[in-house]
Amino acid sequence: MPKRHAVVVGAGIGGLTAGIALHRRGWHVTVCERAPEPPSTGAGIGLAPNALRALDSIDVDAAHAAGSAVPTTMGLRRSDGQWLSRADTADMAARYGMPPIAVPRPALAAALTAALPPEALRYSTAVTAVDDAAGRPIIRTEVGPDLPADLVVAADGIHSPLRRAYFPAHPGLHYIGETAWRTIVDAPDLRIAAMSETWGRGERFGITPLTDGRFYLYATAVVPAGTRSADPRAELRHRFGLWHDPIPALLDRVGRLDPADVLQNDLYDLAAPLPTLHHGRIAWLGDAAHAMAPNLGQGGCQAIEDAVLLAHLLPAGDGGDSTDSVPAALAAYTAARRDRTDAVRVRARRVGRLGALRNPLAVAARDLAVRATPARLALRGMDDLFNGFRLPG
């Protein structure tokens, strides 16, 4: 019998992972991506133990393939440099079986791409519509011809056209009140060993070590949506130049970049959970399904979980079984993922509200509460995230 065919809409981290997982299950996979080529620039991405465990289950070694850097400590600081909380990554590795890692996003995308058959990827192929009315989806693209499929994986991002098309009554995206800047700098001479996020009054600054002396930097500020400055490098210097070391030295490196290498995006999450993560033979994953604020570093991790579990629940792609079990598998996918991902979405929003506080008294109370929480309790609070992914059976 012919192989079952899955069309994945979007070649982001979630879409590529879904393509690999389905390919491992014996499906014929086509990944349609509107961009003309894989990303060559971009920022970093954190991979927590739950995502690494999911990737391991489909034989993807993210640390080996994309390179990684494991910081000695992780924690929160005040703008004067005082630590509010700190944990050794060795303790995290002992508790969860592995430490979190950080990789450049283009390198991770390249590693995932390499795990797919070359013919599976179709760049410059924007999907314009999916007709699921007849029971077997027909995918229409700008370049044609139409693609019939047994399954469509909607991994088409935070502004997902397929989400809007199939859930027109859903309220859509919610602006969380912050904008974010992201970039990568070379600074091997600074020898920064800690992954940290610094909280000020309505502003945050994050430092994540990558490989080869590079650092993924991100910053946020509470501003109206659409706020932009003429030069993002100067804006970062203005906002964070007097914060604790090594932030000023890192901003010096940012100043040497081309302004286009400093990405700025307003932050949105989904205003409410989708009523279901599937419709007919279409399944949504990642930002298309449950866009969340980046405050827990779980957006990409949850997309990876989605992709791996979806493929696991689906029948093998060889078409050997006599029954059509795809619809039941998609219903099981919604049942398994909807509540977990929405809980993470809500938690990320709440953490963001704490980090975005501006009132001096509220900031002081927040900082005192964080400092008073024992490190072992703070680490235990991550159990549901880092140990929350398990494949059934």
What are the SSEs and their pairings?
Elements (H helix, E strand, L loop, with lengths): L4 E5 L3 H12 L3 E5 L11 E4 L1 H9 L4 H5 L6 E6 L4 E6 H8 L4 E4 H10 L6 E2 L4 E5 L6 E4 L5 E2 L2 E4 L6 H6 L6 E14 L7 E6 L3 E7 L4 E9 L9 H9 L6 H9 L7 E8 L7 E2 L2 E3 L2 H4 L8 H15 L12 H30 L4 H13 L2 H6 L2 H4 L7
Parallel strand pairs: 1-2, 1-11, 2-7, 4-13, 11-18
Antiparallel strand pairs: 3-6, 4-5, 8-9, 9-10, 12-15, 12-16, 13-14, 14-15, 17-18
How would you describe this structure to a colleague?
This protein is an alpha/beta fold. Helices cover 36% and strands 24% of the residues. It contains 14 helices and 18 strands. The strands form 4 sheets. It has a 7-stranded mixed sheet with strand order 5-4-13-14-15-12-16, sandwiched between helices. It has a 6-stranded mixed sheet with strand order 7-2-1-11-18-17. A hairpin with a 4-residue loop joins strand 14 (203-209) and strand 15. The longest helix is centred in the C-terminal third of the chain and has 30 residues, at 326-355. The chain is globular and about 65 Å long.
Tally of helical segments:
14
Query: Judging from the principal axes of the Cα atoms, what is the shape?
Result: globular
Point out poorly predicted stretches.
none
Helix fraction? 25-40%
Beta-strand level of the residues, as a percent range? Answer: 15-25%
The SS-based structural class is alpha/beta
* Ends apart, CA distance between termini: 27 Å
Give, in spatial order, the strands making up the sheet with the most strands. Answer: 5-4-13-14-15-12-16
Oligomer: single chain
Main pleated-sheet profile: 7 strands, mixed
Mean pLDDT: 94
Tally of DSSP β-strands: 18
Cα radius of gyration in angstroms: 21 Å
